[in-house]
Write a structure and sequence with these properties.
The chain is α+β, with helices and mostly antiparallel strands. The chain has a single domain (6-314), classed as Glutamine Phosphoribosylpyrophosphate, subunit 1, domain 1 (4-Layer Sandwich). The chain is built from 9 helices and 13 strands. It is globular, with a radius of gyration of 18 Å.
Length: 316
């Protein structure tokens, strides 16, 4: 049994600049990342599975109002919270995903239930909510998801056709200049050499038409295969869908024999850049190697393995 286990998490990417961050907010984000990292890593240390570790980490991020997932989810055009999530494990390629769900406290828990307790991979909208009720998944009233910060974001642009890509703290036009992609995710390798990925998001502020991003799409925002890698993405979802970004990393490893880092480097810094895809991703392979790459100004991220720990926000 290989004892080398590892976990990495992210809390979104984009125009995250130190000059625009207050010390208090930076401390809060860092603490939120640390809690999620330690929560997921504790599962691995106790001999738990990679799937349980990524789920534990993402639940803690969903429960943190600072991140655009679960409790801190952004508002849609209609002033609602519609959330997406996906989870996948690399041993049997089992996966579960949900999109457009409402009032579900932890969408990643619902995605996990889809994977484990249904014959399906991907459920949407009312059907996904019906399944949540049947499974006894914890629900919360609309007020639980309310964040003044997210509400102010929405009010600034709700009367326009603009949509915001996340954590900006000023009026309308800054949204399109300062692109921020609020998604949370985790990837892990457990002591048995099994890997998994999980991703969760509240989507885009002011989104309409039932828009779906890359997060719940297996192969685009989330993917895991023991033979290659586990990947969780954060970025401008439309471009990550078009690039099939997460699976592309796996393909480069499987068919070209590239390392995790080199495969991610090509997808993030070359392929996505070429089509205007801004954001980043975290990855792990079955040997416990970790990579966290992004082509934006920053990415909330953290990783832990073999006693070493890293938490970062800005480009280094």
């Amino acid at each position: 049994m290989d004892k080398k286990f590892a976990l990495a998490i992210h809390g979104g990417a984009g125009t995250i600049l130190k000059a625009e961050m207050t010390p208090a907010l930076e401390t809060a984000y860092t603490q939120g990342l640390r809690e999620a990292l330690h929560g997921g890593y504790a599962v691995l240390q106790q001999g738990g599975s990679s799937i349980d570790a990524v789920s534990a980490a993402v639940i803690l991020l969903e429960d943190n109002i600072l991140f655009n997932a679960g409790r801190g989810a952004v508002f849609t055009k209609k002033g609602l919270h519609e959330m997406d999530a996906a989870i996948m494990e690399g041993e049997y390629l089992s996966a579960g995903a949900v999109t457009g769900v409402r009032n579900v406290r932890n969408p990643i828990t619902l995605a996990t239930a889809v994977m484990r307790n249904s014959d399906h991979v991907f459920l949407s909208g009312e059907g996904a909510n019906d399944f949540a009720a049947q499974q006894g998944i914890k629900l919360e009233p609309d007020e639980y998801f309310f964040s003044q910060f997210r509400y102010d974001q929405w009010i600034a642009i709700r009367d326009s056709d603009a949509y915001a890509l996340d954590h900006s703290n000023d009026e309308g036009e800054r949204f399109m200049k300062d692109k921020k992609f609020g998604t949370v995710g985790a990837v892990a390798c457990d002591m048995f050499g099994n890997i998994a990925a999980a991703t969760s998001t509240g989507g885009m502020t002011n989104k309409k038409y039932g828009r779906v991003g890359d997060t719940p799409i297996i192969g685009s925002g989330t993917y895991a295969n023991n033979n290659t890698c586990a990947i969780s993405c954060t970025g401008h979802g439309e471009l990550f869908i078009r690039a099939v970004a997460a699976y592309d990393v796996s393909c480069l490893m499987e068919y070209k024999g590239l390392s995790l880092h080199d495969a991610m480097q090509i997808v993030v810094q070359e392929k996505l850049v070429k089509i205007g895809g801004e954001g980043g991703m975290i990855g792990v392979d079955a040997q416990g190697n970790i990579a966290m790459l992004f082509n934006s100004a920053g990415m909330y991220r953290a990783a832990k393995n073999d006693g070493s720990e890293a938490i970062a926000i800005y480009e280094e």
